[in-house]
């Protein structure tokens, strides 16, 4: 029996447990539009982060500014065949980037080890396909992070904000009730998926997509500016239903201790 009333933790990958700043997918989204003569911003590339990648590309293409640039360059706004072609480019490009950009975020192996000592199961979900995760999983394992279960966006009927990846992971881990499961994610759509599944939603602010900075870039940022950005990010996450906001998964064991202390044992 778990030493707390939390039975499992389900973690996102990019920006949450690997790829500090969730930079790998951002680069690829920008590149596949660039190849078609359309320059998108990092903010536009990051907007739908957390969703299945085909849907992510379609949502970028539907942004009014992007659609207009596409029309100016190609004569029409982007259609499904354009999205499909970009997705076909996305996969090999993302594989190349993932081989270099999937390092485990500092403090993750230690935090996971502590959670396991408490009897908490560790699952994970991702907007990446299984094909892409076959690159990421071994890299993370070699650096000390290996969850008990990995469910990918192409293994369920619908990705985030639908709760199916979280529910499938809980089933694979054989843990319930769902309200005693914590979902940790660095994107709004990931928080929505947690709430849609009746789970505790924990948002990550410092290492994830919302801030979108590398460790080195964060070190160069003036402290007041960093705090202002983090405060804004926390406010945005809480406005969509996040139960808690932490800087990094490294803080998760302490947070869960606080939750347990507040709730008391079952």
Task: Give a nutshell description of this structure.
With 266 residues, the chain is an alpha/beta fold. It is built from twelve helices and six strands. The chain has helices at 23-34, 42-46, 53-62, 64-74, 80-100, 108-117, 130-142, 164-173, 188-196, 215-220, 223-239, 252-263, and strands spanning 8-11, 121-126, 149-152, 181-185, 200-204, 244-246.
- Give the total of beta strands: 6
CATH topology of the largest domain: Rossmann fold
Work out the strand percent.
5-15%
Percent in helix? 40-55%
**CATH architecture label of the largest domain:** 3-Layer(aba) Sandwich
Query: Helix and strand succession?
Result: EHHHHHHEHEHEHEHHEH
- How much is the radius of gyration in Å? 18 Å
Biggest beta sheet attributes? 6 strands, parallel
CATH class of the largest domain: Alpha Beta
* Tally of helical segments: 12
How would you classify the helix and strand content by structural class? alpha/beta
The CATH homologous superfamily of the largest domain is named HAD superfamily/HAD-like
- What is the overall silhouette? globular
**How many structural units, i.e. domains?**
2
Low-pLDDT windows of residues:
none
Can you give a write-up of this model?
There is one protein chain. The chain has twelve helices and six strands. By secondary structure, the chain is an alpha/beta fold. It has two domains: 176 residues, 3-Layer(aba) Sandwich (Rossmann fold), CATH 3.40.50.1000; 77 residues, Putative phosphatase, domain 2 (DNA polymerase, domain 1). It has a six-stranded parallel β-sheet. Helix 9 links the parallel strand 4 and strand 5. Helix 1 packs across helix 5. The longest helix is centred in the middle third of the chain and has 21 residues. It is globular and about 60 Å long. The model has no long low-confidence stretch (mean pLDDT 94).
């Amino acid at each position: 029996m778990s030493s707390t009333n939390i039975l499992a933790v389900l973690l996102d990958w990019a920006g949450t447990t690997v790829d500090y700043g969730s930079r790998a997918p951002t680069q690829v989204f920008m590149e596949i539009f660039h190849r078609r003569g359309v320059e998108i911003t990092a903010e536009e590339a990051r907007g739908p982060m957390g969703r299945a990648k085909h849907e992510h590309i379609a949502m970028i293409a539907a942004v009014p500014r992007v659609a207009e640039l596409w029309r100016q360059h190609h004569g029409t706004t982007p259609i499904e065949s354009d999205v499909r072609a970009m997705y076909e480019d996305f996969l090999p490009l993302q594989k190349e980037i993932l081989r270099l950009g999937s390092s485990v975020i500092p403090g993750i192996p230690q935090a996971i080890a502590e959670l396991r000592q408490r009897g908490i199961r560790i699952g994970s979900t991702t907007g990446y396909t299984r094909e892409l995760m076959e690159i990421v999983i071994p890299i993370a394992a070699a650096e000390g992070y290996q969850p008990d279960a990995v469910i990918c966006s192409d293994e369920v009927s619908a990705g985030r904000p639908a709760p199916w990846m979280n529910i499938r992971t809980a089933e694979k881990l054989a843990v319930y009730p769902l309200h005693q499961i914590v979902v940790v994610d660095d994107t709004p759509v990931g928080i929505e998926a947690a709430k849609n599944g009746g789970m505790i939603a924990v948002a990550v602010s410092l290492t994830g997509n919302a801030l979108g900075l590398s460790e080195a870039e964060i070190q160069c940022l003036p402290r007041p500016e960093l705090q202002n950005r983090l405060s804004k990010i926390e406010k945005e996450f809480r406005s969509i239903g996040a139960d808690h906001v932490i800087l990094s998964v490294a803080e998760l064991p302490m947070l869960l201790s606080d939750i347990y202390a507040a709730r008391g044992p079952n």
